[in-house]
Amino acid sequence: MTGKGGLTQQHADRILAGRTVEDAAARLEPDCADLPEIPIGSAKVNRERASRIWDQMGGDPQWREILLDRSADELECYQGNIENAIGVMRMPIGLAGPLRVNGLSAKGDYPIPLATTEAALVASYHRGCRVLTMAGGASAMVLYESIARAPAFAFETASDACRFVVWALAQFDVFREKVAATTSHGKLIDVGSTVEGNHVYLNFEYTTGDASGQNMVTLATQAVCDYILEASPVLPVRHYVESNLSGDKKASARAFSTARGKKVTADARLPAELVEKYLHTTPQAMRDYWQMSAIGGVLSGTIGIQGHFANGLAALYLATGQDVACVAESATGVTRFEVTEEGDLYASVTLPGIMVGTVGGGTGLPTQKACLELMGLYGDGKSRALAEVCAGLLLAGELSIIAALSAGHFSRAHRKLARTRKTDP
Amino acid sequence: MTGKGGLTQQHADRILAGRTVEDAAARLEPDCADLPEIPIGSAKVNRERASRIWDQMGGDPQWREILLDRSADELECYQGNIENAIGVMRMPIGLAGPLRVNGLSAKGDYPIPLATTEAALVASYHRGCRVLTMAGGASAMVLYESIARAPAFAFETASDACRFVVWALAQFDVFREKVAATTSHGKLIDVGSTVEGNHVYLNFEYTTGDASGQNMVTLATQAVCDYILEASPVLPVRHYVESNLSGDKKASARAFSTARGKKVTADARLPAELVEKYLHTTPQAMRDYWQMSAIGGVLSGTIGIQGHFANGLAALYLATGQDVACVAESATGVTRFEVTEEGDLYASVTLPGIMVGTVGGGTGLPTQKACLELMGLYGDGKSRALAEVCAGLLLAGELSIIAALSAGHFSRAHRKLARTRKTDP
Amino acid sequence: MTGKGGLTQQHADRILAGRTVEDAAARLEPDCADLPEIPIGSAKVNRERASRIWDQMGGDPQWREILLDRSADELECYQGNIENAIGVMRMPIGLAGPLRVNGLSAKGDYPIPLATTEAALVASYHRGCRVLTMAGGASAMVLYESIARAPAFAFETASDACRFVVWALAQFDVFREKVAATTSHGKLIDVGSTVEGNHVYLNFEYTTGDASGQNMVTLATQAVCDYILEASPVLPVRHYVESNLSGDKKASARAFSTARGKKVTADARLPAELVEKYLHTTPQAMRDYWQMSAIGGVLSGTIGIQGHFANGLAALYLATGQDVACVAESATGVTRFEVTEEGDLYASVTLPGIMVGTVGGGTGLPTQKACLELMGLYGDGKSRALAEVCAGLLLAGELSIIAALSAGHFSRAHRKLARTRKTDP
Amino acid sequence: MTGKGGLTQQHADRILAGRTVEDAAARLEPDCADLPEIPIGSAKVNRERASRIWDQMGGDPQWREILLDRSADELECYQGNIENAIGVMRMPIGLAGPLRVNGLSAKGDYPIPLATTEAALVASYHRGCRVLTMAGGASAMVLYESIARAPAFAFETASDACRFVVWALAQFDVFREKVAATTSHGKLIDVGSTVEGNHVYLNFEYTTGDASGQNMVTLATQAVCDYILEASPVLPVRHYVESNLSGDKKASARAFSTARGKKVTADARLPAELVEKYLHTTPQAMRDYWQMSAIGGVLSGTIGIQGHFANGLAALYLATGQDVACVAESATGVTRFEVTEEGDLYASVTLPGIMVGTVGGGTGLPTQKACLELMGLYGDGKSRALAEVCAGLLLAGELSIIAALSAGHFSRAHRKLARTRKTDP
User: Is D166 on the interface with A (CB under 8 A)?
Assistant: First the structure.
C-alpha cells in the first residue's frame, strides 16, 4: 500500500494544474520573441506624463478614468514620491479611538486614522481603544532610538580584515565628522563590527531627528565609506554601503538586541469588570488564550510572540505616510497578558522596531499630512510621540483580538462585518 | 575609568529625553480623569455617518475637506471594507514594466501598477523589469497552495490529549464534509497535529479558489470545531478557532516547511551584456554582493535571505487590493544569484507565502479593481497568475537593488529621485 | 565628548590583546615553513597502533600513561567507533532517580545514569526525579518518529527543475524498493520536495527501527540517488546525497513542523504540597518564573523555549552511547508550567528531535551498554521507551532548575556543590 | 477519495504503536502505587558511597563491575564534579592533526585529541587538518570575549520599570565593585537593559580569565542583585538571578549580536592542487556544494549556516574537560567557501559562542588534563589559544565534509569505517 506515493502524485498534479509536464516545462522557457517596448522611466509627475504612459499602454479607458482622471488635479503633489505616475490609489480610512496614551512623549487622547480594506479591522482596534481608554489609557515609552546602516568590506585574508577593523574602530570621531558634513538632522551614535573570515561588516547606528531617516543614513554612510577608501591603511577588495546586516525591510532577531527605529513598550492594567463589560470575557480567559497562542507562535518559528501587530501597523503607517514596506520589519515583538493578584488583566506590548517619522517621506502628502494633523502629530518633535501612540494602538489591537478568540467570537465578527460588502463574489 | 558606566548613563538620559525620572514616571501613570467620549463604532459607510464622526471629533475643517469632501462621492463603495469611515486615503501609483512572465499560469507581458510614497521604488523595479524582459522574461511557477487555520484544544492531561488526537486524526472525511457545508470555494486538503503536553494544536490546510481566503477558512474551521465539541469522545477544557500556529500576519520559519498562501519560485538567466548595458555592472560583481548580503542576512537572524521583497510586495498588494498587513508574512524567502559557466547571471527568488486573491477582499474596490484589470488579472481563475507575476516582480526588484549596491550607485539613486520632492523639510 | 569612540577603541585593544596591529596581522599569515609530518590515519584500534602514534607525537610519558596505559586492555573493543585511537577518556557517572515514567512504551521506575563533569548537574536532576516520582511519575509519549536525508539536485533552469520534481514525486514506490534493497531496518515513509529556482531539494523521511540510523539513511538515500541518475528524464547538473536541509547536527525551526528522530512530549501534575516539601517553593512562584524566562528565551532568539534541556540530554546521551553531537539538534523544544485551578503545578516538556537508539552506534560499548542494561533499555524494541524516559528526565530537570531560580537558590547550589572540588584553581 | 484521511489515520496508528486508544491513555495516567524508594543524593565521591548506591539499586553485578570496579581507584578524583557517583564512563580518544594554527594567541602545530564513539568522525577531521596544515595552517582570531548573566526584575507597572532601569543604568561603577568583591578573575565589562512592559531584564557581560566561568558570573550577579534589593529606589515584586535571556545552554540568534564565551573566526586559502591531491575534488565543486547547502540550512531555519560544527566541538569539548552541554549553544555560526580569482579555495568559519576554559570545571580531571597538556594548552593564559585551535579544527571539519559531499564520497566513508565494528547488530 502506498498512500504517500498517491499523495506525492497529488502534489505533482497540483503543480501541473492540468497541463502535461512537457507543456508546463515549455511554458517556463524564456522567450525573446516580440519583446514589448518598455518606456523610459520618468520622475516627472503630472497629468501630461501620466497620459502619455496610458497612451502607450493602451487598454480600456474606464481604468484610466478611475485611476487618473478623478485625481488628476492633485497628481503633481506626489512629485518626488513616485516615478512613472499613472494615477492615484484610494482606500478608505476609518477612525479608531480616541485612545488615551500616557507616554514619555505622547500625552492625551488621540483619534487614530486607519487606512485598510479589511472588514472588521477598524472595528476591532476601536473596541480595544475603547476599553483601554476606559481603564485610564496605555502607558508607553520609547526605550531606544536608532537607525542603522551596515557597510561591508571584503579583504584577501583575515589578517587584512584584522588590520582594517582595528583601524576602523579607532576612527569614531572622524566618522562622526564625516557624517555631520552630510546632515544636520542625523547623528552617528555608535559603531559596531562583525568580522566573518576575511569580511568585515561595520554597523553604524544613527539618530535621525523626527524623520524616519533611511535615506539620510544611506548618504551619511556613503560619506564615511568614501573617507575609509581614502584613509584606510589596508584597502578592501570590494565594499558596499549596505550589506543586509542592518535588518532594513525585514523581520530580524537582531532587532531585539539593538533596535530598528524606535523600541517602544506599552502596558495597561484593566479591571476585571471593564474586561467583562467591554470585551465580554474575563482576564483569566484572555490570559489562558494568550499563553496557548504564545506557544503556538513559538512552535511556528516566529520572531517574538504576538497576535496581529501587522494589521494595526499597516493601517496606521498607510494613513500617516510612513513607509508601509517597513511593516515587514516592524511587525515583530512581544505581547504579554497576565492576571494580577487582584484578578485584573495586565497587558503589554513591546516592539523593537517601530519605523515612524513625522517629517519627510510620505508625511507631507495631502491625506497623510491631514491624518497626522488630526492626531496633532505632524512636524518636528513629534516622532517619539507617534511611536508611543502606535504602541498603544497595537496594545488595543491585541486586547481586542485576544478577547474575541478567548470568547469564541472571532469568526462571528468577521462574518458579520464582511457580510455588508457589495463587491464580493 | 568607566567608559561603559558613562554610556549606560547616556542610555538612561536618552530614555528620559530631558525629564527628571520622577516626571517621567508620573507621566506613565494611568489617568482616569476626564475620560473622552468614545463613539459607538459603525459599519455603515456613507457621507452622513462620516460627517457625524467629524462633528464629534472637531478639529480644523481643512483636514475634513482633504480626507472626506474630495472623495465623498465614492465613499459608499467601501461599505463592507471599513468601519467608522471618515474619508479616503490617496497615494500615487507608478507603473513598472511591462514585465514578461513565463509562468505555469501567467504568460505574457504585464504592466505592473505599484502604489507607494517612497521615492526611487518604482524606478528601481521598473529598471529590473526592463532588463528581465529583455532577457526573455521571468520563468515562474506556483509550487504549492494552501491557507491554514490552526485551532487548539486544551485538556487536563496528556493522556486525554492522546485520546483526542487519535480520534481527531481519524475524522478527516467528516471534517471535509463540515467544511463543504460552509463554503463552495474552500476545500480542506490536509490536517496536521502537534501535541504539546496536554495541549493539542490541529493544523487545517485549505485551498480557497481565487480568494485570499482568510475569512473563509476561519468560518470553515469554526464549523469543524463545532462538530468536534459535539462528537469528540473527550471534551477539551478550552478550545480556540486559531492558536497562532498558522503564521497568520507574521513571518515564520514554518512557512518554508509548508506554505502560506502560494509558494512560488521565479528565475531567469541574464546575458552578461544585458547586465552591463542595463544595470551598469557585471554578473560577477552582482554575485559577489549577493553572497556578502546573504551572510549579512544570516548574521542578523532573518527568516530566509533576500534583499527588499517587502518593497515590491507592499506596493503591488496596495495597488491590487490585497491585504497589505500580509506583507509581514509574505516578505520572507530566498534570493539566489550565480554566475553561469558562460559568464552570464543566473538569478532566482522563492517565496513560501504570497497571499493574493483576484476576487473578494479589497480586489473589487474602484482603483484596486482597475489595477487588476490593467494587468488582465481580475476575477476567477487568475490568482495563481497574479502570484507568478508577483514573484517575477520581486525578482526584478532584487536584480535592480543588487545591481545598484554592487555598482556603488545605491545612495546616488536615492539622492537624485527624492531631491525633486517639494514637501520635504 | 566621544565615549563611544573610547569604547570601540577598547574593543580594538581587546582584539589585539597587547600586541601591535602589525604583530597581530603578521601572526595571522599562513606559514608553510617546517611543515609537521602528519601521520596517515588508521581505523585499526589496538595498543600497538596507539603506541606508534604516541611515539610519533612524543611528549611527556605521563599523559600516555593516563590516556592509554590504564585502559589499554579494553582498547580493541572500540574498533569501528574511532580512528587514530590513542587512548580512552574517562568521566564520572552519577545516578539520578529512579524516575517513574508512564509512557506509551516506557513503563516503570528507571534509574538514570548521567555522565558529566559539571558540579550540581546530577544533584539537580535527581531532585527533579524525586518530586516527579512522588507525584506519580511523568506521562510521556512518542508522537512521531522519522529521520531524514535531503538530497539536492541542481538544473540549468526552473523549467528543468519542474520536469524533474514532477517525475520524482511519481516514483515513491520505486524509491521504497531501492531503499528496501539496502536495509531491512530502515523504511522510507515520506518524500517531500522544495523547489528553489533551478534547485530541487528532496526530503526523504525514514524509520530506522531501534537504531539512531543516520548512517543507514545515508546509504539508503545514496541508492535512491543512484537510481535517479539512471532513470530521471532530465539529468541534474550536480547532485548531493545531503543538502543540509535535514537539520542533521544543528538546531532548526523546521524540526517543529516535522521531526528529527523522535518527537516526544511528557507532562505531570504536582500537588502544591509536594512542590513545597521537595522543591521549597510554590506552584505560583514556579509559573511566574517560567513565564518570565519564556519571554527571556523569545527575546534572545532561541528555537523553542526551555531552560536547560542540553544538560540532561548531553549527560544521558553520553552515558548511554548516543551521538552526543546530536545535542545540538535535540536541545530545542518547549517547556510549559501552569498553575491548575486546584492550585497545583502542571508542567510539560515537548521535544521535536530526540535522537536515540538502543542498538548500533556507541550503544554496544562496555560502559554504555552497561548503562542501558541498568535501565533495562538495551537492544531491539527499546528506543521509543528510551526516548520517553529521556523526556521524563528533562521534565525533572526543568522542574528542578525553575524551582531553584524561582526560590532564589540557584547560585547557592552551585557554590555549595562545586566547592568540594580539589582540582580547581 | 481521501488519501490524506488514510494518512492521518496512519499517523494515529503510529502513535498508538499497536495498542488500543484506551490502553494507551491508561498507560499515560500518573500512578502513585508502590512508589520506589529514592535515595538521598550525595556529593561525596568514593567507592564506598558508590557501592551503597549499587546495593540499593540491585541488578546484575556485571554492570557494576564494568562501571565501578574497573575504575574504582580513580573515583575520588571526581569529587566536586559529580554527585551520586556510581562509576566511570569510558569512550575512546582519537588523534587528529597535528593542525597548524596561526592565531593571535595560538601559534604552532597542535595535535588534537577527539573523544567520540562515531565512526569516521576522527578520520574526517584528521583529513581536514592534513590539507589545512599543508596549506600553511588556519589563521584564527578571537574577536570578542564575554560571558553573560541576565537577571530579571518584575514591577507593578511600566512606570516603576522606567524608574528602576534609569536608576540601574547609573550604577555601573557600584555594580563593578560588588562583582570585584566576589571574584578576582571575573570582571564586569558591560550592562545592557531590555524593558518589556513592567519587566526589566538586565544583561551583565563579564570576562572570566581563563575559566569558562558560568558559575563565577552567577555568584557575581547574585551579589549585584543583593545590592539592588538593598539600594534600589523602587523594589521589584519578583526578581531572578537569571532570566533565560543570556543564551546559556541553547542556540540563540542573539549570540551573533553579542557573544557567548569567545567569538572566533578562522580562515585559510587552499591551492587547487592541494584540494585535488588531498580532498579528491576541486575548489569549484566545493563552493558549489557550499552554496547549495547554505541555502538548505536557511530553508530549514537554522541559526547561522554551517555543516557539522557539533561533531568537532563535542569531541574536543569532551576530550578537554569542557562542558559538553554547551555544544547546544556553541554549534552555531557561519561557514563560507569561495573560489579565488586564482582558482584556489578560500574557506572560513566564524563562531559567536565557543565556550572553553583551560582552568576549572572538568579541565583538571585526569584524562581531560592530559589531553590539554598534550596540546600545550592547560592552565592560565591558554583559553584564547584553545578557542582559536577549536575554530581551526572546525574549519578542517567543514573542509573535509564538504569535500566528501561534493565529490560524492560521503556515504562511502561511513560505510567503510563503520563496517569494522564488532558490536553492531
Answer: no
